[in-house]
Amino acid sequence: ANWGYDVPEEEVRFSHRVIDAADIDVVFGHSSHHPKPIEVYRRKLILYGCGDLLNDYEGIAGHEAYRSSLSLLYFARVEQASGALVGLEMAPLDIRHFRLDRASASDARWLAEMLGRTGKAFGTGADLTPKNKLRLRWQE
User: Given the DSSP bridges, would you call strands 44-47 and 26-28 parallel, antiparallel or unpaired?
Assistant: First the structure.
């Protein structure tokens, strides 16, 4: 199955199983070096890969398409009683010389388009807000 960009089918099955069996509210994937697609499964948030908030990859060639200098901070809101996702905002950042700066409007737009393209198989996308943040969009 084509679950979306860079998400193996076994990760999808595992994420669904932990939500179903363990009553987990958020699955947080890390160490992917770049943001991966987002899914909302049974009203629960799955972040398949949050990338690196800070890394030392600057100047390393070969993976430019992933734009590893771009990073996201994730701010999820969930219902306290049920753990259901209420909303997710993301702050786009740019990593330069071990420092985090706000990403430019064009870089934030690129991240929104990438999350929309890669999240299509999961029914998710991202909208760019007037304050240059990203807001998750999903189908219930």
Answer: parallel
- Of 111, 123, 20, 113, give the one whose Cα is nearest residue 74: 111
- Among 26, 34, 42, CA closest to 7: 34
Does this model's pTM top 0.85? My answer is: yes
For the stretch 77-134, pLDDT in tens is 999 999 999 999 999 999 888 889 999 999 999 999 999 999 999 999 999 999 999 9
Closest to 83 in 3D by CA, of 140, 25, 38: 25
Quote the strand ranges of the chain, DSSP E: 26-28, 38-41, 44-47, 70-78, 85-96, 99-102, 124-128, 134-138
Between CA 38 and CA 120 the distance in angstroms is 9
Q: Report the candidate in 63, 68, 70, 33 with the shortest Cα–Cα distance to residue 50.
A: 33
Percent helix, strand, coil in the chain (nearest 5)? 25, 35, 40
Sequence-separated (6 or more) residues with CB below 8 Å from residue 58: 69, 95, 96, 97
Residue 104: count of CB within 10 angstroms of its CB: 13
